[in-house]
Design brief:
Layout lengths: L1 H14 L4 H10 L7 H9 L7 H11 L3 H5 L8 E4 L2 E3 L1 H9 L8 H27 L6 H26 L16
Antiparallel strand pairs: 1-2
Helix pairs in contact: 1-4, 2-3, 7-8
């Protein structure tokens, strides 16, 4: 996995026209001083084999990429070793890493459902607003969007009630009136 991360760090760094020194400087700005230019060069060439999770996170931030793409380069390789001796397609490994498609009853799945519902509600309200700007605020398209938004809002209230019932940290409602406030 370290070799994969090293290759991806180099690929993303070079794609940005960034020198190892510039990457080291950016990492230092982000709070990790254990990655001077020489360490980055040694890591990229395989002379340094280990990297900490914190260093991966900072390298990803410095390169302006999600950390998961450094470990699982979707679209660039056919397989990655995600555990010692276990390989999979990068997208499958990424899904394993972030829990996509796993235990639909988990806190992660519930909070992802919450975020998804919020995004869908916002999309329908945006459609209503755009329809109002074109002169048909009460037309059939706006009315249909309103009805779907209301249905999704009811679903979001149920999800928020489940989050509360489980004693989980409730996300802010992001400007949507879902708690009747």
């Amino acid at each position: 996995m370290s070799r994969t991360i090293a290759a991806e760090v180099r690929r993303h760094r070079q794609a940005r026209g960034m020198s190892a020194q510039a990457l080291a400087d950016r990492c230092a700005e982000l709070g990790i001083t254990t990655l001077p230019r020489s360490v980055i060069a040694n890591f990229e060439t395989g002379r340094r084999e280990n990297i900490t999770f914190a260093e991966v996170l900072v390298l990803a931030a410095a390169l302006d990429v999600p950390p998961v793409v450094l470990a699982f380069p979707v679209g660039y390789v056919e397989t990655v070793e995600y555990l010692p001796g276990q390989s999979a397609a990068p997208l499958v490994a990424r899904d394993w890493f972030d829990g996509t498609g796993r235990d639909e009853d988990s806190a992660l799945a519930l909070l992802l459902q919450h975020r998804q519902l919020e995004q869908r509600i916002r999309g329908h309200y945006r459609r209503i607003w755009e329809t109002a700007e074109t002169g048909e605020p009460d037309g059939p398209e706006a009315q249909a969007a309103r009805e779907v938004a209301e249905e999704l809002t009811a679903q979001l209230r149920e999800v928020r009630a489940e989050i509360r019932a489980r004693g989980l940290v409730l996300p802010p409602s992001a400007g949507l009136d879902v708690d009747g406030k």
